[in-house]
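Quick one: Cytochrome P450 2J2 from Zootermopsis nevadensis, structure tokens please.
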Amino acid sequence: MFVTIVLTCLVLCLLYNVIKIRPKNFPPGPPCLPVVGCVPFLPSQYLHLKMELWLKKYGSVVGLMLGSQPAVLICGPNEVLEVLRREEFQGRPEKANFRQENFNRKLGVFFSDGPFWVEQRRFTLRHLRDLGFGKSIMETLISEEIEDVIKELRQCKVLQVSRFFGLSTVNVIWALVAGTRYSRGDARLQDLLHALTRLFRSGSQTGGIVNAVPILKIIAPQVTGHQETLDHVTNLKFFFRNIIREHDKTFKENDLRDFIDVYLKEMKHQSDNENSTFSEDGLIITCFDLFAAGAESVSNTLSFTLLYTVLHPEVQGTVQRLLDDVVGKDRRPCLADRPRLQYVEAVLAEVMRINTVAAVAPAHRVTQDTTLNGYSIPKDTTVIASLWCILRDKEHWGDPEVFRPERFLDENDNFVKDEWMIPFGIGRRTCLGELMARNILFIFYTTLLQEFSFSLPVGDPEPSTLCLSGITSAPQPFRVKITRRS
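--- reply ---
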């Protein structure tokens, strides 16, 4: 049955699509087949590791055809830094699956581009800041959330770390976005977080076979996994739409409670403007973007932090001694302690370097014909840049495979910034939640190590540092033993 479907798909594509060959002066790359292009040669997992191999075989810039659409993989560190900064590489791909998930339009602050993206990003960042993003209000929200985590962990001897921090990180940003905080036992939200995890684990940075051959969405939605993805996305969008409409029922222009209210106000003010970029669908996708960032990227980084804490007890001991000296035990760590906790900053930086959540940057699109390393890159080419190649470059880091926080400290034990340390990206597409993420990581990590010691449960194998692949990276499931410090 599956063979019949595939053959039918190929025949239909050959009949209705023009088979394109590589553009002139395009970068070298793996073989290109009719209809599907180079998709059969792309790995379903660990694309960043494949890009390491292709760097040696094809060079820093690798050319692909995703179906009939050109794409380039940026595998060299210097080329990645260049591409992420150049203006003509800042678009987002016109992928069929992304369009369908976003109401067949470019909406939100993540997968949009052009003037629409500029206006929406500025609006979102400005008003989140007004509501407390990056201010003492956010620190209070983070501190309240970690206290709930502490209370739960006091009743726990062994913790399964996977997915544990998802709700906590969502609650911080969600308090500003929707004025809502959820309990850890909220079944509905746990289901949504599970669906989101499935989306990120099963997804592909290149869009997969469905992006190369869109007709597969129609003739083989179950086989390709497209239907499962669509179901998860639909449920999440339904959840956000309900929240927005409940807000609208109690909306008062002179009493704006959160970001959703601020956005609704702008929608109403621009209701007569046919060129307005503000709509209910746009707000749904923006909520999706913010929700996903908190639930997936930040929570996975926290999980990686616990992973390296138990794998390197000497680092844990150093952090705890420093916390005892600087903070003591009569109060909680706060952001004001950062200047005296330079080693903590180094530990968190090393976690994000050695196993970054974003091993591959979200796909970009070339907005005009251009060149890179002497190769011609046509307009609308998809661009996939490896952050892994920068964060694991042997020439720059010396021993990139070794967990060594001291690499970020000078001779006086002061934290030293490194221009290659870009886990949140660089340029115009830098993650707008970077400040929030860094604040959550600092307060959560220091509070956890002030209160507890973590180790491997007796009999458990040593956890693997090989991450779970997907759109983002996550640690493989592992457990920790929790011991409350005196």
